[in-house]
Amino acid sequence: MSENTSGEQNSSNTSSSQSQKDLANELRELGLQLEQTFRTVIESEQAKALKENLVLGFQEIGKQVQAGLKQLQENPKVQELADRGQQAVSQAQQSQAFKDFQETLISGLGQLNERLSALVTKLEERSAQAANSTPSEAGSQNVPVDDESQPPATGETTRL
Length: 160
Fold this sequence. Notes:
The chain has helices spanning 2-42, 45-74, 76-94, 96-132, 135-139. It is mainly α. The radius of gyration is 39 Å and the shape is flat.
């Protein structure tokens, strides 16, 4: 009786293995068929005509945009508006408020650069210390100790 059960299991395993191979072959064939279908569609006359229509459409849009820009450049009102804008920018650059803003911005950026430089230096020093430390030192922690001469940041804790 045990021979029958092991024979049935062998037959079942062989059938399962064959089914997996068949499934893999069918999936591979499906992939090849999809690839061929896609290539055929892309190379079809309809796809070529659609591509040509799109190219012509984009060319026409480009021509219309260029014509619109040319009309705007030739319009005296637009030219007058551009001139006014340039004058306003020029006046703003010459004003004391603009100069003050520019100086403040330069000062702020300088301070930011100094702080970032200090931070980079500090990080590089820590990185170098960590690389040079021995394994026993790497496991230790550098915990800051509060200065007892200064009052605590919060009030005294009382029990109720």
